Amino acid sequence: MSKHKHDSTVLLIAIPFITLMAFASLAVAQDAMQSKQFQADTGPVTVTWSQPATLPNAADYQVKISDLDRNGDGRISRNEVPVGHALASEFKLVDRNHDGFITAAELANWH
């Protein structure tokens, strides 16, 4: 690959990454920021990241069977989990015996 094509490829990758990092830094201004600097062929590269001080869905992980059990059978089916709830994306993981329902014991192991 010629030097010019290599430089163009680096720019095509770097510009979206830099733009993403700029927007991400605005979104997480309240969080603990961390940085690490690396030396690349094109010069120094600084990567900045953060982790939220609190999880936006932390309350999802404190859920009880009674909070979601709409039909009163003492267990949670996939249909009873609201869209966007942490349990919706982790249902298969929590349902240890893969019967399609989450029991109190399975939920306790998830917390």
Task: Describe the overall structure.
By secondary structure, the protein is α+β, with helices and mostly antiparallel strands. The model has no long low-confidence stretch (mean pLDDT 81). It has helices at 3-27, 65-68, 86-94, 104-110; strands spanning 32-40, 43-51, 76-77, 101-102. The longest helix is centred in the first third of the chain and has 25 residues, at 3-27. A two-stranded antiparallel sheet has the order 1-2. A two-stranded antiparallel sheet has the order 3-4. The protein has 2 domains: 3-51; 58-110, Recoverin, domain 1 (Orthogonal Bundle).
Extended strand count? 4
Radius of gyration: 22 Å
Give the spatial strand order of the biggest sheet: 1-2
Q: Structural class of the helix and strand makeup? A: alpha+beta
Layout of helices and strands, plus pairs?
Elements (H helix, E strand, L loop, with lengths): L2 H25 L4 E9 L2 E9 L13 H4 L7 E2 L8 H9 L6 E2 L1 H7 L1
Tag the structure with descriptive keywords.
4 helices; Recoverin, domain 1; 2 domains; 4 strands; alpha+beta; 111 residues; two-stranded antiparallel sheet
Précis, in short:
41% of the residues lie in helices and 20% in strands. It is of the alpha+beta class.
